[in-house]
Structures
1.
Amino acid sequence: MELTLNHLPVLTWNHLNLNDVKAQVDTEGMTSSLRDGTDLPDGITAKYGASAEEVSNIYDKLDTATAQEAFIAGKFPMYNEQKFATGMGADMDLLLSKVGAATDIYEVAAGSKVEEPILFDTEITAGEKLAGAQIVLCKEGSESTWVYAYAGHTEGSGATVGSSLRFFLEKNAKVRVVIVQMLGASDTFLTDFGAVGEADSELTVTKLSLGAGRVYDGLSHLQRGFRSEFLVRNGYLGLPGSYTDINYNDIFVGKKSKGVMRFTGALFDDAEKVFRGTVDFRKDATGANGDEQEDVLLFGDSVVNKTIPLILGEEEDVEGRHAATIGKLSDEMLFYIRTRGIDEKTAEAMMVRAALSDISRDIPVEEIKKRADERIDTLIQRA
Amino acid sequence: MDTKEILLSIRDLTASVEEEEILHGINLDIRPGETHVLMGPNGAGKSTLGNVLMGNPVYKQTGGSILFEGEEITGESTDKRAKRGMFLSFQNPLEVPGLSLDAFIRSALRERTGKPVKFMQFNRELMEKMKLLSMDPSYAERDLNVGFSGGEKKKSEILQLLMMKPKFAILDETDSGLDVDAVKTVSEGIRAFQQESDGALLIITHNANILKSLSVDKTHVIVKGKLVASGDASLIDEIGKNGFEAFGE
Amino acid sequence: MSEMRKDPAIDIAEREDKIILNDVNRELYDFIDEEREEDFYRMEEGLTEEIVRQISEEKHDPEWMLDFRLKSLKIYNQTPVPDWGPPIDGLDMDRISTYVRSKSDMVGSWDEVPEDIKNAFDKLGIPEAERESLAGVGAQYDSELVYHNVREDVAASGVIYTDMESALTGEYEEMVKEHFMKLVPPTDHKFAALHGAVWSGGSFVYVPKGVKVEIPLQSYFRLNAKGAGQFEHTLIIVDEGADLHFIEGCSAPKYNIANLHAGCVELYVRKNAKLRYSTIENWSKNMYNLNTKRAICEEGGIIEWVSGSFGSHESYLYPSSVLKGDGSHAEFTGVTFAGRGQNLDTGAKMIHIGKNTTSFIDTKSICKDGGISTYRSSVVVAKSAEGAKASVNCGSLMLDSISRSDTVPAIEMRTDKADVGHEAKIGRISDEAVFYLMSRGLPEAEARAMIVSGFANPVSKELPLEYAAEMNNLIKLEMEGG
């Protein structure tokens, strides 16, 4: 089926082809669970296979639809059809419902501090098509860490993985989410994320894209509560022939909320990448602070890199910043490394590896971290 | 004078930055094991000389020659110069998140020797040198220069000097911005380099403190892109007393 | 015109004094001169083939131009309204007269300009500005130029500065035909097509090889008629190694029905030539300003845009630079101030095609009293543009929380042998800065106005003095308008 994903919240010139992306996803034979026999630690309970109606009721109860805004002053409607917004948008939900993917609902009990990461280590078999959805309800004052790894011997098989995650953070909840994708060049990876954060909540999302040939990566976080915090670290390797499409929205509603989003990547040969990143200050989000940075290194005659970083503001008492650097390593940095006898090519590989290792060290499961680092080395060598 | 003995020979060197000529004909010979000091007021071209010798593309060598061990290195890339045994300690070392200090030094050594680095031996030596420089061992695994204080950054540069053992090292304002204790520690590191190897040094500074415990063979004064005086270590004291005015500043 | 020129420094100081002493006068732009029906020729409202034919006939178009107009009309009818940007539902072409002109002909001496039109321009200080510091002046009133003059020495150097109609029907017809709407074809977007169909007025400038015009040329556009459109076409060719500064100013009185401005500016910058194009736009707040400006640079050519956008109800304005030649360079410096009832969508486009091309964008957006300001841009680096460097820097200042400020910058790179840097910031006036100025005795309003002027300074410092002063006056006006 054809999906329209990763909508830019405010439209711009159509000829740039940045307003959204059309993705062809083969749903034939797609199965519907990403559950992996995970034993749940104390403090976490699960309800597997919730129906669409149950899910809808949960959204109503949590009042997650406040993220919707029919109009941006004087502008065409913002894209928003979901009750609980994600970065990819409604078509991703449509895909899940079409393949009959049920939603697993997890709950982290109030006040429980779960130290052990909840690990979903998914082994993808050749040609497999898999989709699944999760809602994680993080009760007041709870702390939890969620790790998702996708890998397998899928090279050349055209496997597809679709994952939809929604996190609701009650007051004071602290959540870390780590997503590591280590699929093959012919594989498609759809990774969708939505979050709502109440007062004093803290959400950290770390994502590494290491291998899949087609990556659709969306995230939307409604920072609804006072003083909520959000940190994103996203690293990707755009290998030859690959397409990466990213859309992240950080929406500030709560006063004094703070968000930092960092994107680091490298593109090789004829890799193509589209990055949309939005810092969206809604009215009354006084004292909010949003900061977004993208650094891309380009290696190859035919790379295509598109970047559109938005700052939307309807509150004056905010601070917003976006910066991007696209191209080569800075002359200064290259000179420093070369004074130590390291040639340009090695220096470049070294810097790409450094940038990604800097992200992989956030992986709290040693075994996954090791695999990610090995994967980074292999891919950089191959590229 | 037998030119073969000379490690680094600079002749009529001119260089510019953004079309403006900064160095107007520098001549300088440095022999193995010698320590030269280059002093001069701000903006005289001290750092420019260091960067040009190391081939920083921001600086343009517009004339003259640079011979290293008798071979012309003008136009050669920075990493090739480093592989020949040249080294530059930076005034403002750069930060690299994700790359640890020890991994960086290991890669640099591997590049220079073309051989894998023996892990145990490397580690032992690294710890030894870090101790000498009063660096906490945890710094080895920290990201290169990330979150280091000014003093720690300079120590990290001297640590790289000690580990890489170049034939010729330029120390660009290694003492700038350091407190008294840090200057002393860094200076001890430099002395260790002088004693352990026959590596030559070109120490760029405008402060005599770092030189107190070092043996200095020659001192040069640079003003407005020209070497206006050369002498032995006593020149340092003279500058300490009278400043650069006597040299036409 | 051979009066003694004063020492420029003294001259500037005196003028600055005068400007500071003058009270800001809101009437300056909003005065309405009732047009007496019998003095003006006015096309009936709406847009039909019949109307386009009539305009063509009025203007004595050559045959090819009539064909061009009709083709453009067809494209206009087939092209949808943009689905991005400010909504333009308030604009009804059936209520816009596309052609209004004074029945008197264009003149070359200010004294011969009809009294009422002269009064209007006098109030805007046009002849005065000319005497002071311009190489040539054109003044357009509604759809046609009413006055055109070039200093003798400038004309003697071979510089051509005339109205488009004279150029088109006279000896420069071929040159016009070769360049007219080649850079901005009618297929570009709906309002480019509209322009192609009903354009009238505007200026034609040719600067011959190697000629450096030391002082600026200026065109002033005034749309005085109610419910009318202005569709002037500006075509400038700066030949190899030549140098020109061109200034345009725009204003209109406010009516309670919509006016439309859909002008088109095409700039050809030849090898090693340089053109600076400065605009202070102060259309009234019932104006739909759907303007298209584009420059193309050959090898080593330089285009510099300086742009101040203050007026109009809604604006779509993104001057584009096509850096075709190797080593060509473009700069865009702009400030946009959106006040009550304004939705200003402005920015720039840079297209790098040649090797080692460079571009800089530096913009400031300010919004207040419910105004909406959007910075929109695109920087495209083609595969061929090896060694290109581009940087974008945009700042937004919000003066209250009923206004809105958005930043929508796109970057597209198709080579790894280029570097692009981008930085955007949004924020408000720091209380500390206001406090600091107030502690030195400035009233709060003045302190805030001063900070806003400072924010816009990168633009005002690029403008000739009297324009910088005008811009600061406009900022002051907007700041007081709350």
2.
Amino acid sequence: MERSPGPEEEKRGDSPPSRTLGPINGRASPHDDGEGDAQDAEGAQEAGVQETEADDKPQPLLGGLEGLLDLADTQAFASAGAGVPDPASNRPRTLSSDLALDEEERRQLRQLFAEELPLEAGARLETPPEDRAQPRGSNRLQRRPWLEAVLFIGLVGALLWGAEPPRRGPGQHALPGLDQAHQQLESLPPNSLVLVNWAYDPATAGEMDFVAQPVVEHLLRKEAKLIVVSQLPGGPASARRVIARAEDTLRRPSRAQITANQAIEGGFLPGGAASLPLLGAAPAQALPVDPRWVGLRDRFDIALLADSGPALSLVVAAGAEDVRRWLEQVQPFNGAPVVAVTSAVADPSLRPYLDSGQLAGLVSGWDGGRAYVQRSERTRSVAEQARSSRLVSGLNWGIGILIAAILLGNLVGLTERRMP
Amino acid sequence: MNPFTSGLPGILQDAGLVLGLVISLAIGSYLVRDNFLARLGQYILVGAGLGYTAVLVWGNVLWPRLFAPLVADPMVWLSGPGSALLHRWLPLALGLLMWCGGAELLRRPPSGLGARYILRMLAAVPAAILIGVGLGVGVSGAVQGTLWPQLTAAALSPQAEVSTAVDGLPAVGQATWLVRFITLLITGGVLIHLQLGREAGGRGDDPALESSPGAADAAASSQERSRRYRMLLFTPLRVWEGVGRRALWLAAGILFARLALSRFSLALARLDYLLFEVPRSELWQLIWAAVRGAGS
């Protein structure tokens, strides 16, 4: 795909450096292994053997990232050798540009590729054995059934018998943003309007419910008014379930009473990022709910949201992208502090926003949710404590098994490398 | 009772639990091998999701925001401001245009100029508006919400973690500059690695780099100058690229660890649901009692 330097250029040494083998052009394909290449290339056996050896070397998991960006010809730039064309601007024509297909041909091709291979009735598609074999040095992860079985047994065993609560929770340094999030919610006066973006659905509810519920309980205890919108079809239903559960928890005897309807269902807001700026600039217009259809009290709250804006924005998201989108599209308009409640995987990507002050607080992962409950000083029922303990215990077991597997794999790899 | 309170009777909530168990097991059977039940579970999931989305869009957007106001006041531009026309009829017209254009694109292309050809041309208008607005919003958002605030925070304000971790003010300043330097070093290194790869330090088989300085004759003096220049330029570049490569690995490791944590949480929640929540439901206990009764 790249312009190949001519022999004269290679001799001079001022040719553009050839890109290292990438994930596409450098990885051993199951259809053409190195040995075949070496046999085919008569007169260049030596080169072929070298190529084979290079292909057989195991490639790292992140191999092929280099050269991801367009190549800049630094050598030509440094030696001031004018006249060397920039490969980025001198791309060869792509296949699609060579094949001038009209719309009908493209439609037929789409149909052709959409169909399955015609086989006899009851016949199975057999792949040649050389294709089924995993090529050495390929980057594809291999399934290890024994590892899956050990993980499964470990997780189930920890759930059934590992209900002992961990002696120590995570340290403060491990959960930056948790204290700030708690302080933000604690400082809310009663009847504050909180705009909640519910950006997770049942697919990630297993993790997110555990993190979101303590924060929602805290908001309800502070008698905040929640206006909940979601850009996911399954979002409103997930929000409904978690808020109902939080209300049930708080309604128990000796707990703070929920005095009135504290949650307004804003509904489903389609349109992705394009619909968010309106939510920041004119929230009453953007809310996918017609004020004439809601109760008088809710209508007043929506009008108040349009006049003064929310006192706080809460983004409950499984991914970092939803939080980032909110910070880019909504916060610059309404200026409200944003607290994010996210899954564990989103945490590292959101730390820069926390450090820059764009995020006023961050609660992430089960460890974050558990620490938030401890900080809220809420007495939990025996069933809640038992569930939390067995889940955290199971998580610790799973991570422990994974760490052991990684260490063992590295040891085996080192041993194999030292063996002749 | 508020909008978030579940209106389902208890027995239906239990039915949801048991149905969830059945579909979870059906899809989970894919771990053993691809089979009819696993595919059935996936088809149910996709079909139910699409149907649910269609109902949600109608109930939350199309009817209350578009059709109900139009039905209530079709001649909205006569009774209301002129912008009402833009807010009501124009979205409907663009939506219909896109819908009809999409349906038209499923058919064979027209042979000549005609109504179908014009429809195909006009259907590009709402698509162009969508793409243009999406791109404009995305780019402006990235600048105002990420690029500029992050640059400002990196250049001006001391990092919160550093300022809280260190007591003395001069030490804070030093630590902040150190953090900024490391940030710059790693960011630059990663960019160099992503752009040039391991060849950031020049090609290893370059004869100009491998020739000994003593062997250079008078005719190659310019080449010698070039070689020194390259060594001065490319050695730090190679080191910098190495730092970036290792930083990339470190970041990938951290992300993988958090991803494993997240996915283990999901697996555990599902296992906990199967082992503890389903057996506690009344419907499950009824079914279980019936099965045991039938067995005895």
